[in-house]
Every structure is written in structure tokens, then in C-alpha cells.
Amino acid sequence: MARVPCDLRFLLIPAAFMFIYIQMRLFQTQSQYADRLSSALESENHCTSQLRSLIDQVSTKQSRILALEDLKNRQDQQLVQLKDLIHTFESKGIAKLTQGGQQGPLAAVVIMACSRADYLERTVNSVLKYQSPIASKYPLFISQDGSNQAVKSKSLSYTQLTYMQHLDFEPVITERPGELIAYYKIARHYKWALDQLFYKHKFSRVIILEDDMEIAPDFFDYFEAAARLMDRDGTIMAASSWNDNGQKQFVHDPYALYRSDFFPGLGWMLKRSTWDELSPKWPKAYPYIRLSISMAMTFLDKIYTYWDDWLRLKENHKGRQFVRPEVCRTYNFGEHGSSLGQFFSQYLEPIKLNDVKVDWNAMDLGYLTEGNYTKYFSGLVRQARPIQGSDLVLKAQNINGDVRIRYEDQAEFERIAGEFGIFEEWKDGVPRTAYKGIVVFRIQTTRRVFLHKREDTMKHSGGNQACFVLGQKTPSIRDLYSLGHKLGQGQFGTTYMCREISTGREYACKSITKRKLISKEDVEDVRREIQIMHHLAGYKNIVTIKGAYEDPLYVHIVMELCSGGELFDRIIQRGHYSERKAAELIKIIVGVVEACHSLGVMHRDLKPENFLLVNKDDDFSLKAIDFGLSVFFKPGQIFEDVVGSPYYVAPEVLLKHYGPEADVWTAGVILYILVSGVPPFWAETQQGIFDAVLKGHIDFDSDPWPLISDSAKDLIRGMLCSRPSERLTAHQVLRHPWICENGVAPDRALDPAVLSRLKQFSAMNKLKQMALRVIAESLSEEEIAGLKEMFKAMDTDNSGAITFDELKAGLRRYGSTLKDTEIRDLMEAADIDKSGTIDYGEFIAATIHLNKLDREEHLLSAFSYFDKDGSGYITIDELQQACAEQGMSDVFLEDVIKEVDQDNDGRIDYGEFVAMMQKGIAGRTMRQSINMSLRKNA
To answer: Are 519 and 833 in contact (CB under 8 A)?
Structure first.
């Protein structure tokens, strides 16, 4: 190894030190950097940890916010459900939930008194007559203004009420010369009394009466219903029991209520929230000056009024309205002191006080809510017949239905109102009782008159309510019937008891809410239900329809009243029937099925609930009701829509491929229930029921089946056969030994109802045939819809007339066994004009139900057709004219006159005409061969 020179070695020493120093500095620097880096990393980790903590906190808060939002949504849903539940309870009259959840008085009743002790006694006695049984709901007060000792003593003599005395010693300073101090005193008294009741006694509502009033029997029920309505609709400022035009000659319907832009007063109710608004600005007296337009603006007529006119100002009611009845629930007998006595004899004394106990808790007053009422009322006005002037209405007796008369301005309104005798007065641009400028009252008992200012008030009717569900205008049901208590509630409407005004007879009225008829199919279902009920009319075990009516909000179906309750309830009471009783019942039910099928109708919703008992004493006075799901069918037609009730539905309905055989299945289910008390196919869920129906297993092992006869089981198996083609028909069921053994064998004609009607028609004389054709042409579309379908089914070539071959084929399809010669006889009997075919009019006349002949309007229409000169008699000349119009030979007329003319005066009066129409067997004018055919086939 080479040696380093000595001088260089000395140089290596400092170089080594320098190297060591540099290394040490580098290490120190790296260490500082490492420390700084470590510190930075620690700081970053700390920040990250804090950030994560913050993120966790935010996430937690977000979760809490979401949870709170979810809780709020659930609470909102629960609140909506609670409101719906409260509304349901209130609408059913089950309970009244008050503020704070406590039951309490519905409203205080205060009688405002001053100095008429005798009047006060009459008023208090009238109120106590109806208030005493419900005193806790309507606490009674007397508020006396002043110190009249007789009034005070009389008030304190009653223990059933609370006495208040308003002693006002503050002097009255009138604002204008000549003003009456009394109006200031009355205004002060009203404010003091209402402040006491609302703020001291803390009532939520107050009903205000004056000391010269009597009340109606349903006064308190009316205000209870009005209270619910006011709670529901904030646009109703107050409810009144008074109608300014409530004189006897102008009112008729005790059930009718209206909204009004004009405050009525004289028995009214308001809420505390409304008083909170009115009390601070209550008027001192409010004298009101108006210009008398009716006096041709020749002078100023100064009328002193007070707080009620103040309420009629738009600035105070702010567009809100008032509910009032057509027939008053209060009567003002105050001849002394009422409006200074100037109006009593003309406007107050003739007022009609309602004497009908209306069950307001059963009434659906939803039509009075703001949106509905505009549609309802404008619909009434729109449907009324326009009339020019009042003369025609006042003088003519032959105008049917409501009328409307247009006025241009206040002057013309006052002139027309004066001619009728109603109130002419306006306040702040509004006529008394008016709604949207329209005043309504009655004339000639039932006809409504609408005085209206603008055509556009009638244009808004909106939605399905604007159209005629029935396809045509009908009379108002309230002109013909008075509605009573509720009988039942369905999905689309409510059934009420109703009474025919002209006869006093009781019926049932099914009122269908049009706003629930959302689709075209819903409307068609209602039309079809009415058509089918008309079509089936006359069968003893099917409820009879009396008529159908429509107003802007409802379709009303009036029908026979069955007061015995539902068969379903009777089954629950008994558990099950004896076999004999069950056989008798099922015979009735299957008889209904056979009648429907023979007339081309499939019921599709048979069940015990849809059979009513005519009375409570007879288990077998059954009537089938509710044809809402029924349809017309043609032989071989297949239906696919799933309808009916789960326990009773046939398997082929669930499979969407069925026909009328499904009704027999349903009747079989009913029979099973009648015998055993339980349905044959049962499960906890609807789907479970459907599965059991499709399996079709029938339990004959459980009780009471071991004790049930084999014959009954055999019949049930035949009715509940899963294959429709192998299932018994209705006719076969009625001939089954079990029914025959336990009852009378069914007396069934060989052919269905169409053939029966043709036979009946062939036994009538020619005049009756012509009359029936007149009646047929006057029937509504609903009454002939089913026959129209039958005519179409027989008229296979769509020629508009039925030939012999088509009649023969059609009767064969409906099960006829008549021979060709017999069918030809029927053809000739129905062919009035001898054209060789049966046209539509002839077919309708031939198949019309005989029960149509019992209707007075049809008989009058037919008689008037023949009585050309309106003399009250039908002469041979008029019969010849009728024959010429119908294209018939008149060679038989002398025989007709001889047969029908019972008093032998050579003409036919109305009584003889009715007797002929209601006579079931023809006389000498009918062909002997047809009579023989009838006897042979009867």
C-alpha cells in the first residue's frame, strides 16, 4: 500500500473534522425535519380525527332530522286520519268532539229581553219545550237590558235558566239629529251580552233569540248540524233559523237549506272566533240611509237600523256567507215593537214555522260547503225554465217545474219582487235572501222561482255534476217527497226513508252522490241499475222502483220501503234455519234468479244483505234489492270483469270467464249459510277465500251436516258444482225434490217473461193495444232499456222489425216450447198494423209490464191521446182518427165501444177507459184461436 506524504496527512485531519461536522449538521437537519414531519403528521391525524368526529356529528344530526321528518310525516298522517275519523263520527251523529277533547255544551242560547214580560214568557216556554231534555247541551240564558221589574221577576221565576242584567246608565249621545236612542241601547246590549257569554262564561258558540220568538221542533237539531257545517267550512260566518221570504205562500220544503250573502238574523248562531273579530269594532247603533229606487228617487227614505245591517256590509262579512232554511225554524210574533210594527202584518205574521221533525243528524249537508254549493245552486238555476216577466208565472197554472226570471238592475228587481209580494229591500248591493244576486222562493206550492241578474251565475257547474246522469231533466225530488231519517250508508250514497207528499205513503230513497261518479263507467252503472230495476218491475220478490230523480249533486232512486231489515241479520239471530224454512227461503231467492235470467239480467251480487224483509213479523216476505252490479246479457255472452262479494263469488268469475250460471253458485252459497249458519268457503284473508272457492271443497262433515238430509246436500252439490256447464240451472233448482218435498211445487210458466207478456198482450182488445203503444212511446229510456236489448237480440238482421223466423228463434233462445202455430198467433196479436213483422213500438207495447197500467200518469197520457178535443170522453170519431194515425183498420171500433161503454152513452169516459186497461181478460173482439192457445199454454 502506498504511503501518504507527511504534509498531506496534516491536511487529512481537518478534512476529517469537516466531514464529521457536515455529517452531524446533516443528521441534525434531518432530525429537525423528521420532528417537524412527525409533528405535521400528528397535526394532520388530529385534524382528521376532528373532521371524522364532525362528520359523525353531522351524520347523527342528519339522522335525527330524517327521523324527526319521518315522525312529523307520521303525525301529519295520523292528524289527517284523526280529522277523517272525527268527521266520520260527526257525520254519523255518533259523537261530538269539542275543543280540548272534552264533551261540553254545544252552544249557549240567549234570549235578548227588555220590557215585554208577556212576550218573554211565551218565548221561554217555547224554548223550554224542546230544550229541557237536552239542557246540558244548550244552556239557556236571559239577558235583560234595563230594569223593567216585570221582566226581571218573570226571568227569575224560571229555575232552568241563568239570568243576566245589563244596567247601562251611560248617556246616549246620537251622532245625527233625529236618531232613535233605542238603537244605540240595543247595540250596546248585544255587545255586552255576547262578551259575557263568550269571554266570561267561555262558550264556543252562542245562539241568539229575541223575546218575541217561538221555535220549531227541530230547532236544536238544525243548529247542531249547522255547528258541524260551520266547523268544517270557514266561509260560513253564521247560521240562521230565519228566511225573510218565509211566508206560507213562498215555502214548501222543510229539508231545503240555502247559503245567502244577506245576513238573515232573527234566531242565529255564531262562533267565538267570529266574535273575536267583530267585538272590537261593534257599531254604536249604525243608522243607515238608503235611496228608495222604487219611489223613483223622489225623496230620501231614512230607515234606522242597527247591528244587523252593519253585519250585512261587505267590509264586515268579507265575502263570507250565511246558512238559512227555506222554512223558518223561528216565528216572530212581536206585533208590538217589531220594526216599529210596520212590517208585521205583511212580512212577519204570514211566516210559516216548520212543524216537521227533520232528523238533521242523518242528513248529508256536504252540498252546502263552499265549492259544492256553487255547483249545486247554479245547477238548480240552470235547469229552471227561463220566463220573461212575472205575469206568466202568476197567472198560468200549467207551467211545470222551476222557472227563472232575469232582472237588469235594482229598480227592475224591486218591481218584479213587488209583483210577487216578496221583500224588495237591498242592503249594500245585495237583495234580501240572495246568493250571488239570485233570490229563490216558491210559488203555487212546489214550483221554485229564481230571480237572477246575470247569466254567468248559472254557467259554473263543474265536473260530473254538470251533466245529466239520467240523460234528461227530471222533476225535483223535494217537490214530490219529503226525506226522513237515514236507513243505510253505501259506497256511493245514502238511503233514506221518504214520504210521498201527495199520498203520505212511505218509500225508500237511495241518494247517490254524483261527485263520486268519477268515470264514464260509474255513470253508466247508475243508469243501468235504474234501467234494470224498471225492467224487473212487477216481480213480487224484487223491490219495486217508484221513480228516479236527479239534481246537481245527487241521483235519487225512490223504491218500495222494506222495513223488516236484512235477511243477513235474521240469519245471525237464528244461527241457522230448519230445512223446511231454508227450502222456502231458497225457493224465493232462486225464483228471483230465474226471473232475472228469463228477462236477460244477471244480478252478479246476490247475498243475504241484498234481500230485505218487507216487515219484521214474516221471515219470508223477501225482496231482492241493489242491482248496482247487475247487467243485461245475451245467451252465450261471456263476461270478464271480476265483481261480487268474496264469500259468494263463483270460481269462473275469479277466472274472468262467466255467464248467468254464476248467480246459481251464489244462491248455493246462500243456501249453505241458511242451513249451517256459516259460509262454505272461508279463510282469514280475501285471497284465502278465493283460493278455497277455486278448490271447491265443500265441508259436509262438520256440524250440523251429519243431521242434514242427503237431499239438501245433493242440491247444494248441484248448485256449487265448479263447472258452470254441469251446474244446475235456476229452473232445475226449483224442481229439485228437496224444494218440492218441503214446499209447494213452483207454478212456473213454460216460457220466460217475454213470452208471458206476449200472451197477456194477445188477450187484449184493439183499443188496449193502441193505448199500450201510446204508453210505450211515453216511457223513459230507463223503463224500456231492458226491452230494447231484447228487441235488438231478436232483430238479428238489424232491420228494425222482427220477422216470424226471428221471433221463433228468439223465443227458442229464451227457452220457449211453443209450436210454430202458437208463435204465429202471438205474432199476429202483436202486429198491430198487420205489416207481417213486429216493429220496435209494437214489441215494446206487447211486452210492457202490466203494472205500468197502474200508474196514473201513463193512463192519463193514453186517455188524452184519444180524447182529441179534451172533452173528457172518447168518441167513435176520435177513435177513427187514432186508427188512421196508427195505420190500423177501424172495422172493430163499434165492438170496442159496446165492450167498454158500460153506461151505454155511446162514448168512453176516463173511468171506463181505466177499467178496460186494468181488465186482464179480453172480450169478444179477440180471436178465439189465440184464447185457446193461451189456455193450453198457461
So the answer is: no
Q: Domain 569-741 adopts which CATH fold?
A: Transferase(Phosphotransferase); domain 1 (1.10.510)
Confidence of residue 798 (pLDDT cuts 50, 70, 90): confident
Q: Is there a catalytic annotation at residue 605? A: yes
Q: What is the pLDDT of residues 76-86, one digit of tens each?
A: 655 555 445 44
**Which grid cell sits at 381?**
238555476
Determine the pLDDT at residue 854.
52
> What residues contact 289, with CB distance under 8 A and at least 6 apart?
300, 302, 303
Check: CB of residue 430 under 8 Å from CB of residue 262: yes
426 against 517, higher pLDDT: 426
Task: Note the pLDDT of residue 92.
Answer: 41
CATH homologous superfamily of 753-937 equals EF-hand (1.10.238.10)
Q: What is the pLDDT of residue 850?
A: 47
Cell triple for 902: 158500460
Kindly report which listed range (9-13, 76-80, 219-223) carries the lowest average pLDDT score: 76-80
Kindly state the greatest CA–CA separation across the chain.
180
Instruction: Tell me: is residue 510 an annotated ligand-binding position.
Output: yes
State which fold the 369-461 domain adopts.
2,3-Dihydroxybiphenyl 1,2-Dioxygenase; domain 1 (3.10.180)
Q: Are 418 and 451 in contact (CB under 8 A)?
A: no
- pLDDT at site 41: 62
Ramachandran category for residue 51: left, alpha or beta (phi over 0 → left; psi -120 to 50 → alpha): alpha
In the set 211, 233, 479, 605, the catalytic residue is: 605
Among 509, 552, 579, 629, CA closest to 739: 579
